[in-house]
Design goal:
By secondary structure, the chain is an all-alpha fold. 65% of the residues lie in helices and 0% in strands.
């Protein structure tokens, strides 16, 4: 009995190792950001002759919230654009692209929906109404919602952080609507967007010519450069 339980536990860690590893790394990096951000924020307060914050107070501050959410929204934007963009956009020779003749939403048979659903297909894939339409776009839709929610959170936290700086400078605070049109809001957003878009473009073109043995993000080492949509 114990051997079977151990095998199940080992199987769980193996079967979910990608999510668990990156989820754990996320928490460690977030903790590191909190500590580094706390130290930097207190340095700024010391320069202004203001009382410093504890780590707990900093974690509840608008400065920490805006720094976190501005990165989250750019990541979710990247995946949202990539998921929807790769329906139609292609890159010859890249495993990040579909095969060139498959541009578009593809046939019901290729997507295994409706009458072409199989025994192991998700239940909504076999329907022929709004449920199939919704489920067929659920990944991109959720990514879009996560982007919009994190961007909204960034704007709210950014307004509070900006107004705190304004008050330190003995200047009047601004409203949330005014902050949406401010240079600070768009600088925070665009500096992240450009880096995410560059990373996607670089991955798409570099994977045409470069390889990583054993990675599903790479073509097989011996695959020709012109092979498209082929994973290792």
């Amino acid at each position: 009995m114990s051997g079977g339980r151990e095998n199940r536990e080992d199987g769980f860690w193996r079967d979910n190792s990608l999510t668990l590893a990156f989820g754990g790394a996320f928490l460690l990096v977030l903790a590191g950001q909190a500590l580094a951000g706390h130290a930097a924020f207190n340095e700024d307060l010391a320069v202004d002759g203001l009382q410093q914050l504890t780590v707990g107070e900093y974690l509840m501050s608008s400065d920490f919230a805006v720094d976190v959410t501005e990165n989250w929204q750019s990541e979710f934007l990247q995946f949202f654009l990539y998921i929807f963009g790769t329906v139609w956009l292609l890159q010859r020779g890249s495993p990040e692209s579909k095969e060139l003749h498959k541009a578009g939403t593809e046939s019901d048979q290729e997507q295994r929906v409706g009458d072409h659903a199989r025994a192991g297909s998700p239940r909504w894939a076999g329907t022929k109404d709004w449920r199939q339409n919704l489920y067929s776009r659920s990944l991109g839709t959720v990514m879009a919602l996560l982007f919009l929610l994190s961007w909204l959170a960034q704007s709210i936290a950014g307004t509070a952080a900006y107004d705190e700086q304004q008050l330190r400078r003995l200047q009047p605070p601004i409203s949330w609507v005014a902050y949406l049109g401010s240079a600070d809001f768009w600088d925070r957003s665009l500096q992240n967007w450009q880096s995410e878009l560059l990373a996607v473009a670089a991955m798409a073109i570099l994977s045409v010519y470069l390889r990583q043995r054993g990675s599903p993000e790479s073509k097989p080492v011996g695959a020709p450069h012109t092979a498209t949509g082929v994973e290792g």
